[in-house]
Amino acid sequence: MSAAVGIVAGTRHVSPTARNLRVFLASRLAVGATVVTFAFVLMALFAPLVAPHDPNEADLLRRLLPPFWMEGGELAYPLGCDAIGRDILSRIIFGARISILIGVAVILVATAIGIVAGLAAGYLRGWVDVAISRVVDVLLGFPYLIFAIALIAMTGPGLQNIVLALAYKEWVIPCRVVRGETLAARELEYVEAARALGASSRYIMLREVLPNILSPVIVVSTVRIAHVIILEASLSFLGLGVQPPTASWGSMVADGRSFMLEAWWVSTFPGVAILLLVLAINVMSQGLRDAFDPRFQR
């Protein structure tokens, strides 16, 4: 009896989610990247509590104050100050809010549109697939940054306009992923069974196909957050992003262009923040892909 119990216990069913999560946690690099990513998120959420100073408080007496370890630096301003005496660390902390907010907002809007369009194109086929695919092809023909610059030039800078301008083309990425997965899923047995039982196309797409293709969509969307953060920083660097005095990493890098030789810290530290967050998101998404996408499981 004890041997039988041991066999049953040893062959206990483990859910796919638990198994995938175990694979993800086994990757120290992916877990470390996740910790760094969530550290940035928490920093952004609790910026007023974490930041040592008001990010917009200027004092010309602290103009281009160096980091605390350099001669003339002050421990109260550990990363130094910019050209008008604002604390760089505080502005980096508050700038994380803008980058993460825009990245998440754009991906949520774009993924929602991409899922609907991709499901319709992949399952309904026919003229619906042709129309959506041609729109996707046209949008992919435009360079992303130039396309966003043109839209913002027409609508004007601002948080809402940036989100809409970036989401206007970003949806084509999840759309192509969902369409490809749907084309494969629509021929599987469980979809054929639902169709034979008289289920509507809407029911099959939302209840049968969508839950089974979400893993690659989530992975792709996570990767694209890093891409959107870089695009937002690029727009802010060009002066088309969130307008001053709101702290933004891209505008902070641009502010230090004229002082690179005498005050390298003004541009360097915001650039390092962009590098760390984007790298952490990319490594985390790589771990998610290896764990949750069956095509990459060993």
Write a structural description:
With 298 residues, this protein is an all-alpha fold. It has one domain: MetI-like (MetI-like fold, Orthogonal Bundle). It contains 13 helices and no strands. The longest helix has 37 residues. The chain is elongated, with a radius of gyration of 24 Å. It starts with a helix and ends in a 6-residue tail after the last helix. The N terminus is likely disordered.
What's the SSE blueprint?
Blueprint: H1 2-10, H2 16-26, H3 28-45, H4 47-50, H5 88-124, H6 126-140, H7 144-155, H8 159-170, H9 172-185, H10 189-196, H11 201-237, H12 249-255, H13 265-292
Helix pairs in contact: 2-13, 3-5, 3-13, 5-6, 5-8, 5-9, 5-11, 5-13, 7-8, 9-11, 10-11, 11-12, 11-13, 12-13
Question: How many discrete domains?
Answer: 1
Which shape, going by the Cα principal axes? Answer: elongated
The chain-level structural class is mainly alpha
- Give the low-pLDDT segments: 1-11
Reading the helices and strands in chain order gives: HHHHHHHHHHHHH
* Estimated radius of gyration: 24 Å
Termini separation comes to 35 Å
Summarize the main sheet: none
CATH fold field value: MetI-like fold
What would CATH call the class?
Mainly Alpha
Task: Look at the structure and give the mean pLDDT.
Answer: 86
Question: What is the number of strand segments?
Answer: 0
**Helix amount:** over 70%
Tell me the strand percentage band: under 5%
The CATH architecture can be named as: Orthogonal Bundle
Count of individual helical segments: 13
Name the CATH homologous superfamily.
MetI-like
